[in-house]
């Protein structure tokens, strides 16, 4: 049930002027009308003839939706065809939730039937998130990267680190060690949760003469602490050559902070576009198993 990450020229939501929403909407409306037309003295539930009919329709829709994912992996369709298939997939998924809700008659409990319904809702919600991500984030990625890719950004960071080491080598030993430590403790990426938040977990060890007392590791997100220490060193005076070198080092540190932020945002957007698959696919297969158990339970253990 995975989406096609390739860009499309027309949104799957409005493709064909909502043509592919027509059948799902009519199907949902027909099911709702049949549900409302039940006799007042008949309690709606999944065991009535209508409930079983609606359940059969919902199960068939789930199989169709699963078939979309298989189709996308077996065949390489053109972008336009992929957009139309995706539009059908989206509207059928929403229709399936409506039909399944009518099938159970709004009765829920601690059983396999409710678990199946919950899994269905989770699959549809995760799919909706994936659809939103592929509509919104590719454009943001282009804006963040500009004309560069992730590998080029990483090379920029490496080049800036090399420049910082070269500049730091002409300064006193305390500043040299600070430059090396700032590079060594720079963090790009990190855990999945860190990546999704675009959090910078870079740190820096401050010790005398940059810190009074014992050495301690402090936060260096965005190279802010490193820049602040260099700025204090620059303000403290020194030889003209040292001040000029510190000026250049400050510029390099600022450039690195900008590139590092681009990388973190790039990783975040890529993660947000892909993370939903880690939920959507397992939930989809879990739903298929739950549907099978649900059907067996209904027909053989009634």
Can you give a write-up of this model?
Helix 4 (112-145) runs antiparallel to helix 9 (240-300) and helix 5 packs antiparallel against helix 9. The protein is mainly α and 302 residues long. It has two domains: 19-145 and 272-300, no CATH class; 150-267, no CATH class. The protein is built from nine helices and two strands. A two-stranded antiparallel ribbon has the order 1-2. It has helices at residues 22-36, 49-74, 79-104, 112-145, 150-168, 173-184, 192-197, 224-235, 240-300, and strands at 203-206, 216-219.
In short:
This protein has 302 residues and is mainly alpha-helical. It is built from nine helices and two strands, in the order H-H-H-H-H-H-H-E-E-H-H.
Sequence-ordered SSE layout with sheet pairings:
Layout: H1 22-36, H2 49-74, H3 79-104, H4 112-145, H5 150-168, H6 173-184, H7 192-197, E1 203-206, E2 216-219, H8 224-235, H9 240-300
Antiparallel strand pairs: 1-2
Helix pairs in contact: 1-3, 2-3, 3-4, 4-9, 5-6, 5-9, 8-9
Q: What is the string of helix and strand elements?
A: HHHHHHHEEHH
Q: Percent helix among the residues?
A: 55-70%
How is the largest sheet built, in terms of strand order? 1-2
Uncertain ranges: 1-9
Class from helix and strand fractions: mainly alpha
Calculate the mean pLDDT score and round it.
Answer: 85
Count of extended strands: 2
Can you tag this structure with a few keywords?
302 residues; mainly alpha; 2 domains; two-stranded antiparallel ribbon; elongated
């Amino acid at each position: 049930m995975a989406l096609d990450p390739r860009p499309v020229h027309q949104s799957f939501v409005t493709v064909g002027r909502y043509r592919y929403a027509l059948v799902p909407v009519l199907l949902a409306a027909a099911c709702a009308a049949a549900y409302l037309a039940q006799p007042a003295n008949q309690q709606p539930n999944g065991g009535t003839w209508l409930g079983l009919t609606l359940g059969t329709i919902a199960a068939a829709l789930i199989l169709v939706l699963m078939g979309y994912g298989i189709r996308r992996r077996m065949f390489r369709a053109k972008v336009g065809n992929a957009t139309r298939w995706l539009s059908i997939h989206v509207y059928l998924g929403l229709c399936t939730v409506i039909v399944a809700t009518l099938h159970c008659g709004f009765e829920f409990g601690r059983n396999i039937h409710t678990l199946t319904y919950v899994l269905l809702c989770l699959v549809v919600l995760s799919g909706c998130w994936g659809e939103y991500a592929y509509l919104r984030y590719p454009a943001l990625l282009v804006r963040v990267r500009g004309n560069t890719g992730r590998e080029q950004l990483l090379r920029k960071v490496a080049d800036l680190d090399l420049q910082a080491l070269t500049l730091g080598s002409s300064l006193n030993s305390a500043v040299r060690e600070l430059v090396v430590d700032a590079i060594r403790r720079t963090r790009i990426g990190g855990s999945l949760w860190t990546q999704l938040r675009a959090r910078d977990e870079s740190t820096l060890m401050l010790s005398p003469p940059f810190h009074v007392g014992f050495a301690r590791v402090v936060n260096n997100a965005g190279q802010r602490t490193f820049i602040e220490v260099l700025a204090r060193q620059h303000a403290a005076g020194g030889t003209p050559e040292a001040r000029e070198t510190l000026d250049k080092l400050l510029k390099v540190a600022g450039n690195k902070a900008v590139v590092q932020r681009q990388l973190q945002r790039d990783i975040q957007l890529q993660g947000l576009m892909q993370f939903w698959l880690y939920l959507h696919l397992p939930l989809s297969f879990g739903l298929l198993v739950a549907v099978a158990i649900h059907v067996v339970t209904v027909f053989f253990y009634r």
